[in-house]
Amino acid sequence: MPSLFEKDIQFLKGVGEKRAKLFQKLGAPTVGDLLRLYPRAYEDWSVHTPVRETVLGEVAVVQGTVLQRPSEQRIRGGKLLYKTRVTDGESDLVLTFFNNRYIPTLLREGETYLFRGKVTGTFLRREMLSPEFVPQAKELAIQPIYPATAGLSSRQIGAAVQNALQLLPEQLNDPLPDKLREQYHLCTLRYALETIHFPKTQEEIATARFRLTFEEFLVLQLGLLRIKSGRKQKNLHPIQEEFPQGFAQLLPFSLTGAQHRAIQEAVHDMAGDSPMNRLVQGDVGSGKTAVAAALCWSVIQNGMQAALMAPTEILATQHYHSLNALLEPAHIACALLTGSVKPGEKKKIYSALADGRIQLVIGTHALLSDQVAFHNLGLVITDEQHRFGVGQRSALAQKGASPHLLVMSATPIPRTLALMVYGDLDVSVLDELPPGRQTIETYLVDSGKRQRAFGYVQKHLDQGRQGYIICPLIEEDDSGLQSVTHYAELVKQAFPQATVGVLHGKMKPREKDRVMESFSRGETQLLLSTTVVEVGVDVPNAVIMVIENAERYGLSQLHQLRGRIGRGQYQSTCILITDAQNQETLKRLKLFRDTSDGFQIAEADLKLRGPGDFFGSRQHGLPQLKIADMTTDMEVLRQAQACAKELTRQNALEQPAYRGLRGEVRRLFAKTGGEGVVL
Ligand code: ADP
Ligand code: MG
């Protein structure tokens, strides 16, 4: 029998088929989901302010006794206006109501009410226009405000929640056992649910919120740890702890201090007792590829194979070319495996991987194919990791016996988010750019300046440089495709002398590669592209970028785009074009214009757009948070993470007391469809 939590929302009184649809839309198809549909804010009637202390222009709750029967006055348009005065015993407040004939009967002289509204008037004479009010006698506290939808008001949601709360069994199973709650000072589930919806004081809200936030983070962290611990904990592929000096000598440049440190940390891991599990974070252009190459070299020198997975064909191909160029002189056999490799060729790669002739394979999701098997896989690297679902992270690793794992993140990720997405990976930060990098000059202009911007681009092309024009004219639908072509025509007219390549998501991988390669080789001067070019592409001769409709992108995405230029010795320029009028949008873009630090941009982006959007529209494989706020709940996250580690260490989820919690973990990751995750 399903528990109350799993029951269809229609089970509730007053919720019929029609309303159930609306609840579904809000993400609450079951009673349990409804109880977890938390208020997004509260209207606080519990604290009232003396009239004298109210602040002009702000909302306040005032307790006042009606001094006179509301007077009625007819004004323009036949409207009725009511006026009265109330007092808190010390000062008066003037109230005005429009067109509500019931005011004289609702507000009785000599009786006391609570009034809530924006305070207007003057310093000497406080007023409220049409405040909400309730009799003082009525026991009132804090009203929950729900994310309402058309046809379903916050009040109606509140009523349904109240119904659901009343149906909760006396003995409500709490996924957090008593011992744990005591240890972390957490209230019970029943108290938390009742209170988060209908609190009496702000302190109560804080108590309930802490418990629910903690639980949410805990469940998430436990799930992530479980994914990780699916791998055996013994290091089956120990390497010599030795800095890959031989590799460093192959490089045409010397490593930065940060690269050196990251390599050393990883080598230390791989020589240790358990397999490496490390995240390398670095700003765009900080040189993650060289770090990856060094580690592949080390593992291969120790007689093992390495695999590198990238999210797109373009990236995989590029990695293949640069790693192959670096490692071939050391007689390391590399192969590229993507969806567009011919079947015959694939077969050869499969067999050479299986018997160990290929030492390093670089590819896309194609690496996850059943036919891929390794002889002795020692190291798995995933690039631009957040593009992959949480589950895919472990899928490639499962092709070997607990290989070392290195994750390279494309964008700097705010610390909170990194903790969330990467569970407890060890982190190396590349906080240093290779020497000689120029800062990129960034301009923000409206479309009236497009011709001038194009003129500027032309000047650079004349000097033998290359450039990008990014337009969001999209990809998926047919009409969008039309417009990309249309825009391409405009660009070709604007640059009649130039060779222009066009790149967008609808193209076949092979066509994309052709366009990209031609640009890489410098045969194409100008690349008109959608954001498919966003990650990782490296063409140092490209020094200018124009981004159309800049307002459409998140800051981190803009940062990625901008990171395609400024990669060589030339001064680079990025021009953002927008006709947006919205002040917030302009503020965001100006912040971007004035900041080059990717970590700072990432923090701002997270604050502005929230975690859900942080990674753009792409799946990052993480469940949506219902209550926790990653910009403000960092401390709770830390505690929950410590708790998750402790529980995992004790193998606590296998104990009967933690059955409920285990269920929550499973449920959460089932919803996200955590592909390949064994929970
Ligand atoms: P990202 O961290 O964005 O992946 P890449 O690995 O693509 O950065 O490196 C960006 C560019 O910097 C490449 O052209 C690479 O050859 C160059 N590079 C990397 N490390 C160094 C270094 N230590 N000194 C000089 N150039 C470097
Ligand atoms: Mg890269």
Descriptive notes:
The chain is an alpha/beta fold and 679 residues long. It has 22 helices and 22 strands. The strands form four sheets. It has a seven-stranded parallel sheet with strand order 12-13-11-14-15-10-16, with helices on both faces. Strands 17-22-21-18-20-19 form a six-stranded parallel sheet, with helices on both faces. The site of magnesium ion has 3 residues, from helix 10. It is an enzyme of class 5 (isomerase). GO terms for molecular function: 3'-5' DNA helicase activity; ATP binding; DNA binding; hydrolase activity. This is ATP-dependent DNA helicase RecG. Belongs to the helicase family. RecG subfamily.
Number of helices: 22
Helix content: 25-40%
Instruction: Trace the largest sheet across and list its strands.
Output: 12-13-11-14-15-10-16
The end-to-end span amounts to 23 Å
- Radius of gyration, whole Å: 31 Å
Q: What is the general shape?
A: globular
Keywords: ATP-binding, DNA damage, DNA recombination, DNA repair, DNA-binding, Helicase, Hydrolase, Isomerase, Nucleotide-binding
EC number: 5.6.2.4
Family: Belongs to the helicase family. RecG subfamily.
Catalytic activity: Couples ATP hydrolysis with the unwinding of duplex DNA by translocating in the 3'-5' direction; ATP + H2O = ADP + phosphate + H(+)
